[in-house]
Amino acid sequence: MPHLRIEYSTNIAGRFDPALLVQVTADVLVASGVFSPPDAIKVRLIPVEHFRVGSGADHGFIHAGLALLSGRDGDTRQSLTVALVDAIAPLVGPGPQVVQITSEARDMDRDTYSKRVLPGA
């Protein structure tokens, strides 16, 4: 726990390094000190080919959706989402499109979340 799903519009795909984006955002979550053990953090990067922003302007987006087990206070959730946006922004290079970078934190119901860790070989 947590699960970070980063979606991005494919019209900005060449403006950032995907591996670096995943590494930096994972590092932000580890550095927060909120999650223990840090190996429970999962980050996924998901391209979105079909999308529309507002009135159809040629904008792009990166959205970091952070799913957390319920019970974290609002200040903690807010500090995590601000840190993610602040870490992502400098990774995006120049280009013709406006890029909207957003983040949100959602609660997953602690009572219904299930997890099993299988040992490695």
UniProtKB/TrEMBL annotation:
MF-aspect GO terms: 5-carboxymethyl-2-hydroxymuconate delta-isomerase activity
Protein name according to UniProt: 5-carboxymethyl-2-hydroxymuconate isomerase
Protein's organism: Zoogloea ramigera
